[in-house]
Each structure stands twice: as C-alpha cells, then as structure tokens.
Amino acid sequence: MKLLQRTIKGKIEFSGVALHTGDNVRVVINPAPVNTGIVFVRADLPKRPQIKALWNNVVDTQLSTVIGSKKVRIATIEHLMSAIRGLNIDNALIEVYGPELPILDGSSLAYVDSLENAGIVEQDAPVKYVQVVKPISVSLDDRFIYLLPSSEFKISCRVNYKHPSVGLQHFEYRHNTFNYVAEVAKAKTFGFLNEVAKLKEKGLALGGSYENALVLDNNGVVNKTIMSYDDEFVRHKVLDIMGDMALCGSGTRLLAHVVAYKSGHGLHAMALKEMRARKTSFKVLEEPVLVDDKAYAEKAFSLLQTVATF
Asked: Residue 51: which domain range?
C-alpha cells in the first residue's frame, strides 16, 4: 500500500534571533499542494524570489546549510528541514523575512511542536522516495559519510572530539516520527568557547547565546542545565544529517542507511551531489524495493570500527 504525501493544515509563524547574523527574523510556514516539495521564499525582497530545498541549490556549508544563488540566500535551514523530515512532511511553502532562519532554542523542538499543533494532513498523491540501491561514499581527511542501500531511512553516527565532555559518542537512529521526537528533536547545537571570538570576527555566531547553544570551555559544558541528553552532541549531528539529507530531491524522502563519522554540512552536501552524479546509485519510486539491510548493517558496523572503537 502506497503512503500519501503530507502537508500542514494551516500556516504557522516563528520569530527570533538568527544564529549567525544576529538579526531578528520571521518565518511563516504555509500548506502547499501535492508535488510542491519544500519551497523557501525570501518574502522580504522585491518579487519574493523562491528557492527550492534541493541539494543543487546549496551554496554554502560553513557552520550551517545555505541555499540560494549568488544574489539571494537563505541560511541555517537545517533545523527546520530536520523537523520537516522528522515529521514526514512533503510539501510546504516557507516565507522567510530575512537572510537566515531563527535559531530558537538551538534544536528543532519548537518547529516540531508547532508543526504538530498545526496538524498534519494526508494529500491525494503518493509519496515519492529516493532509494539508494548502490553504495555511495565521500571523505575528507579522516571524516566520511556513506549512503548504503536500505529499505528505510536510518543513521549510524559517530563524533570524536578531544574534549572531556564529548570524546567519542555513537548513536543509532531508525526513522519514524515517534523516534525523531523522542530521540533527536531536543538535541541542541553546540560550540566551543575558545572559538567564539574568531567566529564573531568572521561575522558568524553573532546571535549565539547560552540559551540557544551548548557552550563548552576547557573543563566541560558551561550551561549544562539546558542539556536534554547525555550524548546530546552526537544526537545533534543526527539532527543535522536528517535536515541536510532532506535536500535529496523535490518532495521526496530519502531511503538509505547513512553512516557518518565526524561529518558536517559540507560532507552531507558532497554525499548528495555524489549520489545524484551516479545515476544508477538510486531510484525514484513510489514503493520501496526490498534490500538486504542486514548485510549493509554489518558493513556499516565494520566501517565505524575501523576509525574509532570504544
């Protein structure tokens, strides 16, 4: 039985400070017809230019995912895109009044709560999947990301920071909306206190605060009281992976086993670009094909064991 596409019942609105510009910005999320996909609108600009949430519209990945063109950009879309993917929403028109989305509390929870409160409805067209059928990989130094064939969407993620409060963390995520809300949505972004001055010199992290990011000094987490999980750092990476992988195609849901080690927005964008360049590595389907997930799960375990063990 084919699943149906989904959108929200009515529009919802957010406002708040943007993480990097420090600007106060407003976002309005509207329902959209079938096969629209996720479309952003710079509603504050003349002619209201539109930008589809697609891998080939990514123009920058320095500390956030930015879509657009040389003239029009929308930054830090990954937390909203993660919430949208986490709740299996396929179609929405997102009006942004500014160059960047608000950071809110540094997680995707506020987006999730508002989207759920607005109501999510099925539409009269089947879901479209981008299903990986041949392994794809990209790497940079010791960091890598693999997209392995799978009948579902799942993530095996490891981070490795030389810090007493982080170190090596591993998380396994198997996608459904319940798991997303319970295991991922509350994970906040994080940063290191000794890097803040350099970031601000570059015009980044101007809106960062102890309320919207976990901050680490040399000894530990400065604002530990806002943490939701003991392993929040790797869970936030999973949150980011979900948001970036939602750019796999217009109004489509990715089916793959994502295996990531020390990944970031740049590697996520590279992986989607590589997948799209290899036309036989994926299929666009309305019903997934069965894959021997067990064999690829063993491959994923083997890949991660080669770079870091507990």
From this structure: 4-125
